[in-house]
Amino acid sequence: MIGKTLSHFKILDKLGEGGMGAVYLAEDLELNRQVALKVLPTEMASDPERLSRFKREAKAVAALNHPNIVTIYSVEDSDEGRFISMELVKGKSLEEMIGAQGLAVGQFFDIAVPLTDALTAAHQSGITHRDLKPANIMVTDEGRVKVLDFGLAKLHTVDPAAADPDLPTQALTQEGMVMGTVPYMSPEQVQSRPADHRTDIFSLGIILYEMATGERPFRGETSADLISSILRDSPRPVTKIKVDLPNHLGRIVGRCLEKEPGRRYQTALDLRGELEHLREEVAKETSDAGSSIAVLPFRNMSPDKDQDYFCEGIAEELINRLGKFQNLRVASRTSAFQFKDADSDIREIGERLNVGTVLEGSVRKAANQLRISAQLVNVADGYRLWSDSFDRELKDVFAIQDEIAQSIVDALHVTLSPSEAKQAVQKAAKVDVQAYDFYLKGRKFFYQFRQQGFEFARQMFARAIVIDPSYSRPYAGVADCCSFLYMYFDSSEDNLQEADAASLKAVEIDPGSAEAHASRGLAVSLSQRFDEAKVEFETALRLDPNNYEAHYLYARSLFAQGDLAAAAERFEKACDVNPEDYNAPQL
Question: How far apart are CA 548 and CA 335, in angstroms?
Answer without folding.
Answer: 12
